[in-house]
Amino acid sequence: MKKATKNKKKELMKKRALIAFLGVMLVFFYEYYGKDIGCKEIKGVGVRVVDGDTIVLNNEKIRLKGIDAPESKQWCWYIGDHKEKISYKCGVESAKYLSKLIEGGERIECTNEGKDLYGRTLSYCYVGITNINRDMVYKGWAVGYGEFKVEELIAMYNKAGIWRGDFEMPSEWRKKRKKRRR
Q: For the TNase-like domain, which residue ranges apply (predicted)?
């Protein structure tokens, strides 16, 4: 009798563990892939990259939500193999990576998350199943802007993109340039 009770308890524990595991996987899947399932309102093929976090799709200016990429005129630097400081236009490199990411000719789909202060549509955009916003942060060509913090930590750890050296946060870079113009 005791053996049967122990077996039932073990089976119950296994079921609970399985349910907990599936629950965690469901939350992970939803967080990573599912937020925007069925919500992609803007679709098209003809895309133009403005900079590392802005595209034009079907003549609509779209700001990639949750990320901030270096500006087109922004410079970053890293230490080279011979201990020399190497400067490069990280804003241009960020835009190049975004262009490469979307150039395959596959259809791009974006959500409509409202408008920003400049009238651009805020969106999560996809090429196939790839979330462009997430990939820009994960590969180190943008920083998370209230989102994608895990991807940012991974990019930092891997010294990917702008994280291979030093850079000024894009928001700080813009603030300094704005003050100089006054």
A: 40-165
Digit-coded pLDDT (tens) for 104-117 = 767 899 999 999 99
**pLDDT one-digit tens code per residue, 72-106:** 999 999 999 999 999 999 999 999 999 999 987 67
Angle at 17 between CA 16 and CA 21, to 5 degrees: 115
Q: Are residues 28 and 44 in the same domain?
A: no
| 170-175, long-range: CB < 8 A, 24+ apart | 170/68, 170/69, 170/70, 170/71, 170/74, 170/143, 171/68, 173/70, 173/71, 173/74, 174/71
Please indicate, yes or no, whether residues 66 and 112 belong to a single structural domain of this protein: yes
**Block residue for tokens 């009798």:** 1
Q: Which domain holds residue 113?
A: 38-181
Q: Are residues 98 and 177 located together in one domain of the fold? A: yes
Q: What is the pTM of this model?
A: 0.78
Which tokens is 40 given? 């992609």
Statement to judge: residues 55 and 137 lie in one domain: yes
Two tokens, residue 148: 């994608």
